[in-house]
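DM from R.C. (forwarded with permission)

"hey, sorry to bug you on a friday — could you get me a structure for this? deadline for the figure draft is monday and I only need the backbone to look sensible"
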Amino acid sequence: MTVLAKVLRVVGVLVLAAGAGVGIGMWKTRDEIKPIVVPTGSDQPAVDIAPVAMASAPTPPLADRTRSHHIGTDKSIPLDPPPQESTDWEKQLDDVLLSDADSNAKADRILAMIPTAPTNAQVELAQHLVNMVQDDHYDGAAQLLTNAVTPSAVSTVLMNDLLNRNNILKLPMLLSVARDDDHPLKDQAREMLELLIQEDDGTNWDQWGTSINNWLQNNPQ
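My reply, with the result:
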């Protein structure tokens, strides 16, 4: 047998072996992969395979959903509106100014409004007060001026007006403010006393009283 014939014979054997192996593998595969048969005989009931749905959170009852909505609403919208700063002082002031009462009676009503009025309104009310109150009815305004807790802006309005009052009223009032260490306008009051009577008694308030009395004997008005 020639060499070429041997080679061809070997190749043929390999081809036949490969074909047989493929055939055997396919036969085994068909045997291993068998269809799943669901028994339908009388001994076992048929199985109804339903699709599996993804689990979801249960829907809350209508009452719970309503309650949750209201809770959210309560957080954003308060049940009671916040208290508002009183803004009716202007109307009250108009009523006073347009009334038929005399000047001192109007001054008393305006004076009563100042402590409870908003801060920005107290200055305007003080300006109306000094326009109304007369020298012989100055007790209420005097108490407001000499009170150390009165806002300094209000006291300033009263003190500026005080310079236009008669000396018998003006000088003792300035002395009362100047000698109060807690009063925010004490320094201004003392400077005014020095300018008016041309004296400087420092912080000797008794001497200030004597100097003022002496000056008033010659300058009562």
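R.C.: lifesaver. Residues 90-151 form one domain.
me: no worries. The first helix runs from residue 3 to 32.
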